[in-house]
Amino acid sequence: MATAYETFQVLVESIMVSSKGWVDAVAIVSQDGSPVTYSANVDFNPDYIAAATAAIGGAATAVVELLNSKGYEKIDVQLKDKRYLLIRMYRENFVICVTKPNPNLGFINLILEAFLSSKP
Amino acid sequence: MKIFKIVVTGPYNAGKTTLIKTICSEALTTDRKVSRDDLVKSTTTVALDFGLIRIGNHIVRLFGTPGQSRFQFMWRTLSIGMDGYLFMVDSSDPVSLNDALHMYMFFRSMHPSTVHVIAANKYDKEKKLSLDIIRSALKVPELVPIYPTIAYNRDSVFNVLEALITLIQNNSPITVKHTDPAKNI
């Protein structure tokens, strides 16, 4: 039986392969800010990314609560170099995706939705 | 090898960012300029500080919280899954103990059995409060050690973190009789 880590590793690699080169890095981090697994074609420090992502997620949750909403679906950040930082929730973890500049965002969103909405 | 998550917390200007920058060669910080001029320093942490260090055979992930209470939501977020916390106070600033008490009680009510130590920072300053006064002002249980600390001194920081890791490894959760920290908030 596959461990959670193996399952997550397969997931990030599947996203990387399926994204047809539009994605430079995918990582899964726990809500306590620890890296679970990642796959990247670029310089990518998982420990620091994980800590910062947990902070982003926490801040977003705080805003959502102030707006009396039930939660958020996704966080998309457009970087100045036209890359995107995409954050999604998956099984109580964050999935972080860093794209190439000017990506096919619709395609990447479809890929993420397909992989992250599937039942474990 | 074990990985520890340690939260470094305490009120504004207690020295949390300095401590993490001192001990971690590559610290991630989120300092931003303060927009008010009545505060005692030019920048403040708005999200987190983060750094990695090795203590013995262990990896320690340090998460520094913002000190201002308006960033209280980050205190909760960053403390998820922590193994222990280092609570810092400015031992040279008696006025800051009020904010420190509020924050300390927040952490004790949220995490009543989590191992922690108190760092009485800026202990190299001439006008500093004694450890007994700090213990009394913050209502620190006798079981919780308070260490004189100098956040910009690497040895001082290392010693206090090493002490905290040892406490965590000895698995000595804080148990205090007849204490309801939430009442003090």
Defining traits:
heterodimer, A: 120 residues, alpha+beta, 5-stranded antiparallel beta sheet, B: 185 residues, 6-stranded mixed beta sheet, 24% strand, globular, disordered C terminus
Molecular structure report:
The complex is a heterodimer of chains A (120) and B (185). Chain A is an alpha+beta fold and 120 residues long. Chain A is built from 3 helices and 5 strands. Chain A has a 5-stranded antiparallel beta sheet with strand order 2-1-5-4-3, sandwiched between helices. In chain A, a hairpin with a 4-residue loop joins strand 1 (23-30) and strand 2. Chain A is globular, with a radius of gyration of 14 Å. The two termini of chain A are 13 Å apart. By secondary structure, chain B is of the alpha/beta class. Helices cover 29% and strands 24% of the residues of chain B. Chain B is built from 5 helices and 8 strands; from the N terminus they run βαββββαβαβαβα. The model of chain B is unreliable at 177-185 (pLDDT under 50). In chain B, the strands form 2 sheets. Chain B has a 6-stranded mixed beta sheet with strand order 4-5-1-6-7-8, with helices on both faces. In chain B, strands 2-3 form a two-stranded antiparallel ribbon.
**Measured distance between first and last alpha carbons of chain A:** 13 Å
The termini of chain B sit apart by: 38 Å
- H/E order of the elements of chain A? HEEHEEEH
Overall geometric form of chain A: globular
Number of strands of chain A: 5
In the predicted model, the low-confidence regions of chain A spanning at least 5 consecutive residues are none
CA gyration radius of chain A, whole angstroms: 14 Å
Quantity of strands of chain B, as a count = 8
Instruction: Provide the residue-averaged pLDDT of chain A.
Output: 91
Would you identify the regions of chain B where 5 or more consecutive residues have pLDDT less than 50?
Answer: 177-185
Q: How much of the polypeptide of chain A forms β-strand, as a percent range? A: 25-35%
Rounded Rg of chain B: 15 Å
What order do the strands of the largest sheet of chain B run in, or round the barrel if closed?
4-5-1-6-7-8
User: Which of globular, elongated, flat, extended, rod-shaped describes the shape of chain B?
Assistant: globular
> Biggest sheet of chain A: strands, sense, closure?
5 strands, antiparallel
Average pLDDT over all residues of chain B: 89
Order of helices and strands of chain B: EHEEEEHEHEHEH
Proportion of residues in helical segments of chain B: 25-40%
Biggest sheet details of chain B: 6 strands, mixed
Share of residues in helices of chain A? 40-55%
Label the structural class of chain A: alpha+beta
